[in-house]
Amino acid sequence: MNKVVCASAWLVTLLGCGLTVASNSANAQQADPAAIELIDSLSLRESPEPIRNHPRWAKPRKVVVAYRSTLGGSEAEFLAGIEAVAGDAEVVLFEPFDPDLDLIADADVFIGFCSPQILNQLKNLRWIHTYLVGVDRCLSDPGVRKMDFIMSNNQRVSGPSIAELAIAMTLMLSRKLHYYQEQQSQQRWARDAELSTDLSGKTLLILGLGGIGTETARRASALGMRVIATRNSSREGPEFVDKVGLSDEMYEFAGEADFVVNTLPLTKKTNGLIDSRFFDALRPGAYYINVGRGKTTVTDALVAALNDGTLAGAGLDVTDPEPLPSGHPLWVAKNVVITPHIAGRNFDSVQRTLIIARENLRRYVRGEKLLSVVDVERGY
Predict the structure, then answer these.
(1) Is 341 a catalytic residue?
(2) For residue 198, with 0-12 CB atoms within 10 Å meaning exposed, 13-18 middle and 19 or more buried, which class applies?
(3) Which domains occur in the chain, in start order?
């Protein structure tokens, strides 16, 4: 008999979206067509080898899944979708932000929000799939890195949603919409803002040409922008990116940029990477957008660049510190648009998240190649 922890109502955040589920386990032996479409459209990465070849793999006995009330379906529908691909394993739904640790402690498969506190309780853990892209918080405890488990994440799945926010911020700043929004709140018909600029023909530099960066580049190119990018792995990129360089070439690329979008993950190498040296390398009057991780940017250097006019403005979905406290200089810095780390908090992103989590569980149970396996040492 499967156990279910009842969940209370939730905000429009993660998980549960009225996903159409297989009517029985036999139907779930093959991938959901929606998953196949996402894997192709988002170029999701498969592991090189089937997971059954991993020395830690075994068919799961107990699968615990983070759940709160769905956007369009019931708890029963959510549970049915998981059970349809879980094989013979016991399935337990748990409250992600107030978990019953005794209930989940003996799980060998975990799907949900990752934290060191939870991981340290999972003594039998073999595989964890996190609903999020960033795993820096999850791996922040050195002891966790020594644990022997397989990890996969939400890489690329939230990319379209986060990319659209990056482009929205770029448009908002370039067309001075933040200024006019402020005037509207004061009921002023004010036409005295500085002249706005078109995006067509401007150069956008993307720091970190991964899933989010690629989706941002796709949209920027469609708007007529020249897109250049850096990445850690190679100088190769899609056809809509005009030039790709390695990470250590970002200062050279910065000199060409009218707009910068930071989509970097947080690792030892990227922590504090965007500093005064980088801002000084930009074209005067460039704009800076950060939808990656707040700690990749030295906040004091960002504030200084905004205040002295090195930057014409900034769009920040992530900050350091986070949450941004009342009275912080970024709240009052000139030409800054701030959102509270909600770029991926989107109905369509949630739909994709659930589909891929379920597909990865199906693959794990069958010992197939997993999607988006994380290199724990690299941190992504």
Answers:
(1) yes
(2) exposed
(3) 26-157+347-366 (3.40.50.720), 159-338 (3.40.50.720)
